[in-house]
Amino acid sequence: MPSVESSNNSIAVDAPSEHDTHRANAPIVKLCPHSTGVSCGSCRLNELCLPIALNEGEMEQLDNIVERNRPLKKGDHLYRQHDGFKSIFAVRSGSFKSYVLSSSGAGRVTGFYLPGEIIGMDGIADRTHANSAIALEHASICEIPFNQLESLSLKLPVLQHNFFSIMGAEITKDQKVHTILSSYSAEQRIASFLLGISSRYARVGLSPTRFHLPMTRGDIGEYLGLTVETVSRLLTALQKRDLIEVDNREIALVDKDRLKEIVGADDL
Amino acid sequence: MPSVESSNNSIAVDAPSEHDTHRANAPIVKLCPHSTGVSCGSCRLNELCLPIALNEGEMEQLDNIVERNRPLKKGDHLYRQHDGFKSIFAVRSGSFKSYVLSSSGAGRVTGFYLPGEIIGMDGIADRTHANSAIALEHASICEIPFNQLESLSLKLPVLQHNFFSIMGAEITKDQKVHTILSSYSAEQRIASFLLGISSRYARVGLSPTRFHLPMTRGDIGEYLGLTVETVSRLLTALQKRDLIEVDNREIALVDKDRLKEIVGADDL
DNA sequence: ACTAATCATTGAGCTAAATCAAGATAATGA
DNA sequence: TCATTATCTTGATTTAGCTCAATGATTAGT
Asked: Which domains does chain B have, with CATH numbers?
């Protein structure tokens, strides 16, 4: 397999952990060096995550409520639809998809979550998760018990502000997806999707032009409201036009400008 | 004739209104809440809005930051895309749509907002509104300056909790829309839309079976990713099957159960 | 009240993407 | 390792919803 540089999977791998707060049910897997750290203060994602702009003392208080080291294997569920809501989660490494099971059997993917992103906010409103969330690859997360986050947010204005912003960003993102689904052609959806993944990887310091897709074509199709076949055909077509290179799940964005033209400028 | 608005129209007259458009950053004539007879405490929507479960003293503090009496005429903008974000708004009467202008000219409706609902959260994340919001009919709103809401939320745990819940509900709702747009047929979308409007009216004490649609067929189409023609055809078709009655924008849901069957059970 | 403009309906045909079908490739596990 | 399953690709065909077009109904402005 041609290695598309150090993509997603390699970043952020788990914590070295002197004082491991391993929980009883926490899986095995030994943690690699350098990492996202055992504390928010030493996590390389902290400028993209809940702790933005917290001072040292504040970050320590946040650290105290964060539960780390709950690595998940591919296919493990982080939570399931209808589960009681207790926590939100920050993706530390790996990736997740959220999905709902339609009554007609087929699952529908509602989101993908990459390192530095927050998953689980679908349970805040009615204290029950509206989606299931499943690891697309080996992954680790920080669990943030919501009640404690609320309490701490009362004491730390910056934390409250950050969390409002994170939720606001989720709302804005969902509305953008709404626009994509309600008005873009299949080709525009795919181009937009690739550019979106690209900038989300860029955000955590990974290459915006060469990356690994952790999800299947089927997942992408469900997310974008297309069939697997259409996704596959369009990736092939974009490659033939030299806009991208595709090697199974390794993607290279060869001509980002023309991809942006396809989606029509004002996309993410 | 059942109509969306009604209710709080008793409250005060207009701001000076030399200009038709009340922009978010336009000067506001703030009247003392008690002189208008309207305060959160006396608002019939207060159990559905920000003040849920606030005690008297807390509600008074909220009242002090809420700016009321900004009636808008049909077609007035509440804010425009790219406007600086200052406030969120609670719809008191009337209704709004939010939309974005695509580079390709056509506007895309991203949401409808009915009495008791909060509009403007699309600006929280990056302090700039991602959408425009326009009144679909004569409407009045409560403006809640966001910075003050944040400050007050630090002091009133229940208020903070409520606002987290409201944002969470928006996220959950957007994800449901995602599912609708990515996997429902045109007929399912229309049925689901009608049921959604129905329960939103029911929430504020209006009839869930007979109501007025404040938006055009075109708006509905943009929102649902369908053309005007398809929306029109499907409403006619549902009427022919005796599931609904349509008289221009007056809708009666005749057979809610079969509408639910169409969308496949687990819808709103 | 009258005119213009917007909104809604209906029909006929077209097309983008779905469906159906068949293989090829890659991942997983005994 | 090989066998099994999951994923991906490509082709042929169908179809749901779009586009184009024309007309009627409402609403808004003077």
From this structure: 8-160 (2.60.120.10), 184-263 (1.10.10.10)
